[in-house]
Fold this protein.
Amino acid sequence: MKLDMHCEMILDEYRERVPVFERLRDIVAERLQQSLDENNIVVAGLGARIKTEQSLTGKLELKGYKYRTLDDITDILGVRIVTFFSDEVDVISALAEKLFEIDWDNSVDKRKMHEIDRFGYMSLHYICRLPKKLCDDPAMPELNEVRFELQMRSALQHVWANMYHDMGYKTDVEIPHEYQRNMSRLAGMLELADEQFSSIRKEITAYRRNVQSLVATGNFDEVALNGDTFRSFLALNPFRRLVDKMAAINRAEVYEDSLMPYYNVLRMLEMKTIGDVVRMRNEHSEGAYQLALIQLAGTGLDILASSVALQNLCIVYILKQGFGEAGLVRMFEALYGKNEYNKQRAERNYLQAKKINIIEN
C-alpha cells in the first residue's frame, strides 16, 4: 500500500528526528538505570528501542489518518522495564514520576483490565517527556518536547506477552477456540503465580524483619539458627571482645573476614538456636583465649583474622564434647572442603589444646 502525501510528510519528519530519538533513548535509559542503582533496585531487564522506519510505515498504512504530525505518535521511542515481581511495578512507576513529566491523559494502567487472556498485556504504560532538570540542551530543544512510552511489567507478564505474540497474536490465522481457551487457562495460572511470588516475598521480608527484631532485643533462644538469623546475629559483632583480646596478645591488627562459613560448622554441631551459639561463646571464651595464647605466643604475628575467635570457640566446644581429633577434621572439612591439610590442621590444634588441659583425660 502506497502512503498518501500526509503520511509521507510524517515519515520525512521521522527521518529528520532520528538523531533526537537516539539521544533521547540514551539519556532516558541512563537516567532510569542510575535511579534504579541509587535505590538498590534490581530488575530483570531495562531496554529502549526506536521504532524502525519499516515499522512506522506499517503503522501509518493502517492508522495514518489518526495522526496529524509525528508528535501524535507517542511510541517512536519505547522504553521497557521488566521487574522480577509484579508489586515492583508500582515502585518503578514512582521513580519514573519523579524523573519524567507524565502525560496522564494518554497514560494507561492496563493492569486494571481484567480480560483473562490479556495477562501478558497488563503493563503500566506511561507517556513521558524529559524535563529540563534532567537535560537542557539548547542545541537540541526537541529533547524536552518529544514524548516517549515507558512500559513497566513483571517478568511473567513479559514472558507471556512474547509467547502469546508468537503463538497467535497479530497473525492472519484464526486460532481455534479450544486453543484460545487453553491459553486463557494458562494465563490465569501465570497471573496467580505472579501474585503468589509477590505474596511469598512479602512474607519472607516480614519474617526477616521479625528475626532482626528478636536478635536486636537479645531474645536469642527464640531465634532458630539459619542463614538469615546467623547473618543478623553477626551484625551485632558478638565475637568482637574476644577477637580484640586475642589480638592484644601480639598487638596485632585485626583483619575482617567473613564468619558466614561457620554457619555450616554450627549446624554440624547440632546447634538449633542463636541462643546455643551465645552459650558456646559465654562458656568457652576463656578456653578459646588460652588456646590463642598457645597459637600466637612467640610467633610475632601482627595481623589476625577476625574469624579466629569463632574458630577457637568451635575447637574448644568440639573437644569438650568429646568429639576429639576426628571432630576437628569434620569442622575443617565443613570450612574448607575435603583436602589433605585438614588432618594436619586438626592434629596441630589437638596437640595445642592438650597443653592447656582443654581435653579432659
